[in-house]
Amino acid sequence: MSKLLQDVQELGGKIYEIAFNFSDEIQSLSEDVIFDCLGLGAREVFADLELKPVKGQLLLHAAIDLDFVLGHDEYCLVPRGDALVFGSLWQEDFDTPEPNLENEELIWDEVNRLFGDKGSTVEVPKQHIKRELIFDSVAALRPFRQGGVRLVHWGGSK
After folding, report:
1. One domain, residues 58 and 119
2. Listing from the earlier edge strand, what are the strands of the sheet with 134-144?
């Protein structure tokens, strides 16, 4: 995200942090294009009752220099400079937004089944991926709408 933010700023984009409680407040802005970064808060601001939280969880493994990203359904392997990310997870029903051991095991087993075992479509060398090299597990809630994204145009002279 920091690289994306840097790119936006280098291309002349401006970043403002403003708290909104109602969509009318957003309509009063003079900018031509506004990206909603309200996350789950958009449910209240836009009275969007279709928006709901879903839980994701990631495992952070010691970094491995891979030159590819893998994904299948809700699971992925994403190499970063600081970690090899195993994820993600898509839970519409959850008891806590915190990471839990049950999800860790599910992610570990599924990623290894999809990407690490003999016979899988893409094989990541087993000598590099080890359970004991998982150093963190993180979870977060993200907004989801069954109908997909919602675009709003307020009109005006612009």
Report:
1. yes
2. 70-72, 75-79, 84-87, 52-61, 134-144
Tell me the pLDDT tens digit for each residue of 94-126.
Answer: 999 999 999 999 999 988 888 765 655 566 666
* pTM, entire model: 0.73
73 lies in a domain?
Answer: yes
Preceding omega of 88 cis (within 30 degrees of 0): yes
Domain tally for the chain? 2
- Do 26 and 103 lie in one domain? The reply is no
Is 58 in the same domain as 41?
A: no
Q: In 3D, which of 100, 97, 99, 122 has the Cα closest to residue 112?
A: 122
User: Residue 111, SS3?
Assistant: helix
Domain that holds residue 35: 2-45
Closest by CA position to 106, among listed 127, 90, 119: 90
